[in-house]
Design a protein that fits this description.
The complex is a heterodimer.
Chain A lengths: L5 E10 L3 H15 L3 E14 L2 E14 L2
Antiparallel strand pairs in A: 1-3, 2-3
Chain B lengths: L14 H23 L2 E4 L10 E5 L6 H8 L4 E6 L6 H9 L2 E4 L1 H5 L1 H13 L3 E4 L17 H9 L3 E7 L1 H4 L13 E5 L12 H20 L22 E11 L2 H15 L3 E13 L5 E12 L19
Parallel strand pairs in B: 1-7, 2-5, 2-6, 3-4, 3-5
Antiparallel strand pairs in B: 6-7, 8-10, 9-10
Helix pairs in contact in B: 5-6, 6-8
Classes of the chains: A alpha+beta, B alpha/beta.
């Protein structure tokens, strides 16, 4: 394997439905900008609560991609 | 064999002409009803430019704000709105006739696409209404303005007409479906802001125009000011439930941790329009050879993620704390 440099960014995706969709939103947006996305590590998940009910699921991802 | 019959009303081959005719009928019907039900005091209407593209920028208190604005201006006013508003037949026919330009949800996500639609309205010499706060205020305060209005003005050269609306919150408070008649509204127009009179780099001009606009609206509306953005959502997810934020780890060195944190926040807010949440990640200090101390504050700052095609990108130079 040759020498490769990967760049890492942290994104927080949110969704009103699930953590999975929140992660998908973050990856989808990142894929518009960065090519060759490989690994997304889940760093943190939480929910936002208003008036006793969950209004948003949030997933913080650490995404790595090949640095050009 | 051709069957000749009566042409239906508004029949014309040109859809714009058809919409314009429908607008005249709808507006001509609504205006007398509006006048009878909503006593409106319009101040300084001589400041309204008589022709050309104009951005009408107002504080946003109530759903009824747009109705008051449309009925207080001598020219047709257009708004950009979500296509979801036009789900029913009546709204699909009536809203465009009243000046609403639909953009679908996918387009709405792309700020650039919305700007192009807005610029088209101004280039053809029409008036475009925008609420720089982005959404209705929930606490009655005048919130921070987004810089999209300034960007649009700089793109098109169109002047911005600041407007202060008073009383609309009593006519239709947030959460109510039916407006309450016979409650007075006041519309105050400010001096138009000419975007071509501002100099310096683009980002600074956008910020200066936004500051001047919000100050003009504050004077006209008499509202107390909030340093925060208005939002339907709690602070951490502003921008919508499906928004994506990027976390930047940034820091600065200064004479105190507080000052270092302030430098970092100022730097981020200058670089990004949407820097929202800053969290202290690490505080450290270094003792120099001469015995003096330098303080380092490192923050995690969440910024609305801008994908390719957006106007804002991560600046190459960023102050990093020394390790």
């Amino acid at each position: 394997m040759g020498n490769t440099v990967y760049q890492v960014i942290e994104l927080i995706g949110s969704s009103s439905d699930s953590w999975e969709l929140a992660a998908q939103n973050a990856v989808r947006e990142a894929a518009k900008t960065y090519q060759d996305l490989r690994v997304a590590e889940v760093v943190e998940m939480d929910v936002l609560i208003e008036n006793g009910s969950i209004i948003a699921y949030r997933t913080k991802l650490r995404l790595s991609f090949k640095s050009s | 064999m051709k069957i000749r019959g009566r042409r239906p009303p508004f029949a014309t081959r040109d859809p714009r002409e058809r919409e314009e005719r429908l607008y005249r009928v709808v507006h001509g019907t609504i205006k007398p009803i509006y006048r009878a039900l909503i006593p409106t005091n319009v101040a300084d209407h001589h400041r309204i430019p008589a022709s050309g593209g104009v951005i009408v920028a107002s504080n946003h208190v109530s759903f009824f704000d747009s109705v008051v604005l449309m009925n207080s201006l001598p020219r047709r006013l257009f708004f950009i709105g979500k296509a979801e508003y036009m789900d029913s037949w009546t709204t699909r026919k009536l809203f465009p006739a009243m000046g609403l330009i639909p953009i679908n949800r996918e387009q709405a996500r792309k700020a650039v696409a919305s700007l192009e639609v807005a610029a088209g309205v101004l280039h053809r010499g029409d008036m475009l209404g925008i609420y720089p706060e982005g959404t209705r205020t929930r606490d009655g305060l005048l919130h921070r303005g987004h810089s999209g209005v300034a960007q649009l003005a700089l793109m098109t050269g169109a002047p911005i007409l600041p407007v202060g609306l008073v009383g609309t919150g009593r006519i239709q408070p947030v959460g109510t479906r039916v407006p309450r008649p016979f409650r007075p509204a006041t519309v105050r127009f400010g001096e138009p802001i000419d975007p071509t009179s501002y100099g310096g780099p683009g980002r600074r001009r956008r910020q200066q125009i936004t500051n001047d606009l919000m100050e003009a609206i504050r004077r006209l509306s008499g509202q107390q000011v909030s340093d925060d953005f208005a939002s339907d959502e709690p602070p951490l997810i502003r921008g919508g439930n499906e928004s994506v934020y990027q976390v930047h780890h940034v820091g600065a060195v200064a004479a105190s941790w507080r000052q270092a944190a302030q430098f970092t926040v100022t730097d981020m807010c200058t670089s990004f329009d949407d820097a929202r949440v800053g969290r202290i990640e690490r505080l450290s200090c270094q003792i120099e050879h001469d015995g003096s101390i330098r303080f380092t504050s490192q923050l995690a700052v969440s910024v609305k993620f801008q994908s390719v095609g957006s106007a804002i990108h991560v600046p190459a130079q960023r102050r990093q704390p020394e390790s």
